[in-house]
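During the second year of the project, the team shifted from modelling isolated chains to modelling whole assemblies. The rationale, set out in the original proposal, was that interfaces cannot be judged from single-chain predictions alone. As a representative example for this report, we include one of the complexes processed in the last quarter. Its constituent sequences, exactly as entered into the pipeline, are reproduced here:
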Amino acid sequence: MHNKTITELAKGLREKEFSSVELTQAYLDRINKYQALNCFITVAEDHALEQAKRSDIQLASAGAGLLTGIPIAQKDIFCTQGIKTTCGSKMLDNFIAPYNATVIEKFNTAGAVTLGKLNMDEFAMGSSNETSFYGAVQNPWDTNTVPGGSSGGSAAAVAARLSPAVTGTDTGGSIRQPASLCGITGLKPTYGRVSRYGMIAFASSLDQGGPMARSAEDAAILMQTMAGFDTKDSTSVDREVPNYSAGLNNSLEGLKIGLPKEFFDEGLNSDIASAIEIAVNEYKKLGAEIKEVSLPNMKLAIPAYYVIASAECSANLSRYDGVRFGYRCGDPADLNDLYIRSRGEAFGAEVKRRILMGTYALSAGYYDAYYIKAQKVRRLISGDFSQALSEVDVLMGPVSPTTAFGIGEKTNDPIEMYLADIYTIAVNLAGLPAMSLPAGFANNKPVGLQVIGNYFTEDRLLNIAHQYQQVTGWHQQTPQGFE
Amino acid sequence: MSLTTDEIKKIAYLARLGIDESDIDAYANDLSNMLDLMTQMGKANTAGINPMAHPMDQMQRLRPDVATETNQRDHFQALAPQTEAGLYLVPKVLD
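Output from the structure prediction step:
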């Protein structure tokens, strides 16, 4: 069952080939069998089986949707009523949210079954899942390597077939980079397309939730449920949601693809460059025209991003004070001691680094030089994309300069880890939608192709991804031992 | 640009963030490297450019001034480390 697509699973449920309870149990068994990957922080077994039972009743009557009875799993950044939500941090190790995130509410309404909560970098700060309080996640393609991050548990779970599809969030590449490193399909939607209500905030002007699945076809089904205006999120955009599955089979004849020359400079591993080239050639065969474009300010994306993300994180994480929820230190001497030790004892090193950086960048005398300057650079970068996307329909390039690296290999040098985000973070600064698609292997490790579109063109991106997946089989590859 | 250990202590205090004495040098080093990276922004000519806070330059929405939230005080207080008589408890602030 675990190799079926969501559409096939939905058909199986309707034709009574298996029940949602049986399907859910099959995935719970796999999750249990592959515990060593450490994909899950919380497996919600009882909750899942209860939801599955209800879905089976719904399936027997009218009104069941495509996701009714389909097991999925949620990144542990989405608040779930009654199931622990940790955000990968000791700070929230005891936190059971009193409400559901809008995304969770939507999946519940659609009848989906929540298998559990997925491991992630602490507060989504990391590119390897190694900053999680709950430990590193293994990449199923090579268990000595990282799955990427921050949605590392999400990507590894889909690659290992522990869930048909999952949610992730992307602040600087946290859906696309793990999708790339684990050989799955991930979509980071336009900023404002998916509600951030109940999605624990890291950098509020950049964070965006999205689907991660084995194929574009499955991602489209999740996206249909996730997208939409939400009055509870003040940055949500009020705009009609298209049918994401309707245009999947549209022809790509005449599609104009731009290759930003900055994506193919000396920093890119040559095996990855070849894989991307082969993928682009596949699009030529599908009728696309290729053109070189330029994003001249792209190199500035890393410094601008790490100012903005750190500044916003330092503000957002000030809520964790040991008073109203989360971790509290023992025997505080006074109020300051309560704040300082609760935060000091419960945040990990990477989170502390970013809070310190953000606090510095926002402090009196430095605000203009760092934060305002970074926001101006952000507009320049956004302008580069507008220019490039006025010449072509989509941009293509690599997701990550390397394939999955060894667990522990980069943990001593945070800057080196940041530099690996070079191809993904500019997209967040601009707020554009982008996907990562499996596009082959380099040294037996998956390579992801990035496809970047204009605002609110998720339907077109999914179509472009789906057409590629009709003529290639990379997305159907399964890591050895997880067939 | 490099930050001194005193500067790190000051920033950590501003953020009410406890850091171990033995880690201060490492944070000073990491933050100094981050600041070096950030000085690259100086190369960009941003004269006359408006800072960008929201990708679509969307403004905050307004809504009618009507209470829509239900009272969930008990729910919220159940999560708190220490409460009493409906209040959140913290160490004594005034003697």
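The longest strand of chain A covers residues 434-442. Chain A has a mean pLDDT of 97.
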